[in-house]
Amino acid sequence: MVRPKGVTLVAVLTLLSSGALFFFFMLIYAVSAVGGMSNPPMTGISLWSVWFEFVPLCLSGFAFIFSVGMLKGVRIVWYGSMVFWVVVLLYFGWYAYFINSKSAFAHDYEYQIALATVVPLIYGVACLAYFWTDGVRKYFRVQA
Fold it and tell me: Domain limits of the chain?
């Protein structure tokens, strides 16, 4: 079956999001290394730092793998992408809540933080909705 153009677009966006998530990881890691956004600064590795810092790194790796699989039409990638976008929604939904309600940092950079949290949420919802369409499911050979 011929790959739908939307799948190509989603694969390219997912590849770009892989780079963006890696940059996001590096940014959070660098900020936390110099004292972070918390008051008092967190030290050491905790469950908090693993969730906050290393989830974007894992998401970055999976996004790269899934984008290549989308272009090849690998069936398991459809399922993995669904899980990936749900995790993206959960992570950035939590991040939007945390950064906007718990951090004094948010008041200085309201628009930038809103952009950094809303865009991944829109991306995740749009990709989830698109991948549920019949043409995409036929391309990945996924039954209803």
Answer: 5-139
